[in-house]
Amino acid sequence: MLYNYDFDIVGFVMSVIAVIFILWKKKLERPVNKAIFVLAIFSALTCFFDILTCFPNSYPDQYSKGLRDFSNYGYLICQNLMPFIFFVYILFQTGVDKTFTTRASRIKVFSLTIPVVIVLLCFLLNPFFNWVFYYDSAGMYTHGPAFYVLYAVDLLYLVLSTVYLFKYGRGLTYSKKLMGFFFIFSSIVAEAVQAFIPDILISCFIETIVMMGILLVMDNWEEISDFTTGCYNKRAFIEDNRNYFINRSSYSMATVDITNYENANLKLGIDRMTGIMALVGEFLRNIRKEITVYYLDKGYFVLLSTHMDNIEDAIRQAEERFSNEWVEKTVSCKLDTVISTIKVPEEINNLEHLLLVIDNVRENYSESSNDNGYQNKGKITTLIERFNRQSAVEDAIYKAILDNGFEVYYQPIWDTEAKAVSTAEALLRLKDPDLGFIPPDEFIPIAEKKGRIIEIGKIVLRNVLDMMNNSEILQHGFKCMEVNLSMIQCMNSTAIKDLLEMIEKSGIDTSHINFEITESQMSMDSKALRKSINSIKKAGCGFSMDDYGTGYSNLSYFFDIPFDLVKIDRSIMWKSREVRNAYVILDNTIRMAHELGIKVVTEGVETPEQMAMLEEMNCDYLQGFYFSTPVPSDEFIAFIKKVNDKQ
Q: Alpha carbon of 431 to those of 405, 439, 446: distances in Å?
């Protein structure tokens, strides 16, 4: 039987073009690119040997046994190694290879190679036992008893590739995953077609076509390369690290930041600076072949490796090279650098925090610095610690919302006219089992940023209303509870509406609730703020400005916004005992507020002298540790009954 090898010829030509294309691009730093390069080579060899087997197997009496063995062994070995190579490619593409660092994982790697070792062993022993193929008495090529083991192993690796794509391919784009699955499907179909049409050699052609699709979709170097430096770009950096984090890989990286990049660019011009950056990229890429180099933008490089020793060696070489000038044609330039290291997952355990560190690290040092090396190590470590802390606090907030882990404390406020505690401020507290006490000025901004503050606001108000309903404080001279609002709540009309409905459903009169917002937040969106205040006032609740004196202290607030009460920040009161101007400001602020019909609370009262001074100024309410620290609800209720019943 004479085989039709036209498809194989086309497949061979396309595979050779793919190999040349990969070599021309010179993008073999990453293991995934090396894998696709090897796959392209084996695709070309498979087509070549498939063509070579046609005539010797069709006319055995005209060709030597040596040529027949060479062609048949070459084809079968290359053909049956391709599914394994593709499987390795999938490991690299999904980033699973970065997880193979422990003893258990290395044992797993060894077990995954056992089937292909068995295949190679079958070929090695075939001359003695004819397990894979042999020549019958007529000299015709014949399959041996173990031949179908090769197909079983091929199918096994294609199935494993499918499993790993499903399990670990979450970081890949839809098109990449689709192309991976298409290669697997096409390989199976190609073998089935070949079995039914043995005289037309089409299986290698189909696999080659799909492999070219992989080059265009899964490994499109035009999309992931920086043309100036020859390094991988930020897109590749994000894709690679997304896969690594998803698969819990362990690796290290060094950030190399050229701190005087902007000045050098202005001095040399774009063309010459482009040439120098090409030199820098070439140098970094050639330090060690095990290191992948990314160029993110404006003189910022990242070197990545699974071994810290490689990174440390690269840093030593980089420090030495950057201590000298870079020469492009007739122009020389000294580049100042800051080099830092990051370990994953020891220091950073998610992509978001990594990108935050990468994007914000430049804000932590001066561009004019001329020091190379680890100058920035402490600062980048601080950034990492800060982002890790933020992540831990985010988790604590989420757990507290789910498990009712927040607690509301109450700080009594002294009424100078009634000589009693007639109001108090509700203050949120968070104590996490792992992190311990988390101060409000830390978790509140994070809750606002992550969109949790509206839900937390409901928790605070619910606790306040339940406490007031389940106690008798309103019968002991208590009049009003002050509840803090975030500007995010004020900008959301639905959030304000929900809070007012909660008060109405609780049965507590709206006059017993006073909402407050800090002065520093008031300039953010006055239109939305006025709308929220109008809704609050219309419902019968009070509204106050907190921490007056810490923001812009804009007097227009007093006639633009209808406050019932203003709270003067403790810093003004504390200074008033020592600084004459502060005393005058405090005294006149109270007088001005009274003239406008606004009552005043002064915060930070800690001594009898401070209390006496403020009473002399006719301040309406006093708040501070002199009266009480913030306390849990049961202590607060007992405090109200004890203090007010004496009056």
A: 8, 9, 15
For the entire predicted model, the pTM comes to: 0.58
Q: Which DSSP string do the residues of 297-308 spell out, in sequence order?
A: ETTEEEEEES-H
Q: Which helix (H) or strand (E) holds 436?
A: strand 436-438
Q: Give the C-alpha separation, 565 to 569, whole Å.
A: 13
Closest alpha carbon to 294 in 362, 226, 215: 226
| Contact between 328 and 279 (Cβ < 8 Å) | yes
pLDDT of 134 > 60? The answer is yes
Output the 3-class SS for 232-286: ECHHHHHHHHHHHHHCCCCEEEEEEEECCHHHHHHHHCHHHHHHHHHHHHHHHHC
Among 426, 411, 460, smallest CA distance to 640 is for 411
- DSSP assignment string, 35-95: HHHHHHHHHHHHHHHHHHHHHHHHSGGGS-HHHHHHHHHHHHHHHHHHHHHHHHHHHHHHT
Higher-confidence residue: 374 or 599?
599
Q: What length does the chain have?
A: 647
Confidence category of residue 522, pLDDT binned at 50, 70, 90: low
* Contacts with 572 (C-beta within 8 Å, 6 or more apart), sequence order: 549, 582, 585, 586, 589
Which amino acid is present at 351? L
Task: Specify the amino acid at residue 573.
Answer: M
Exposure letters 312-326 (e unless 16+ CB within 10 A, then b): ebbbeebeebbeeeb
| In contact, 375 and 270? CB cutoff 8 Å | no
Joined tokens for residue 577: 């005992």
* Distance between CA atoms of residues 57 and 52, nearest Å: 9
At 440, which helix (H) or strand (E)? helix 440-449
* Three-state DSSP class for residue 333: strand
